[in-house]
Amino acid sequence: MVKEIEPFAPTVPAPGSLAERIAIMLEKRQLSQHGLEYKAQLSRGYVSRLIKGERTKISPDMMRRIADALEVSFEWLATGRGDADGVSTAAPVAARQLSHPLEAAIAYHRGKWSAPTVAAARALGATPEAADLEPPEWADVLDQIEAAMSKVKLTARRRPA
Q: How many angstroms separate the CA atoms of 33 and 23, rounded?
């Protein structure tokens, strides 16, 4: 008895997804998935899992390495916002527009940090010293603020009646 093999049906990335942006740039750069893995120093099969949707969340470091290897901006790769080399990459209308790298980091790590931590980071984001920080650096800053906030113990004072 001969077992029939189902025809290969490639997985099509969701529109506006990280997977789609990677697939677009692989084609534009005429680069194979393996070639991207080599350039970005990723494990074998990593890009395939991203494009198939088996891996949907990646670290800021991995995102930076992929962006550098594809020669695109970190923000475009992470959020789809902006223009990458003349490729029409307009974000879907429903997509949230992230105007600051801090907001990109917050959106990527949705729910990771407390509201006071995010508020403190937003206040810091308005200073000139923070002007050149990229999303991975903001993620580190948010982690540091969260760690510092966890050490602060505030107790509610009762007012005399």
A: 9
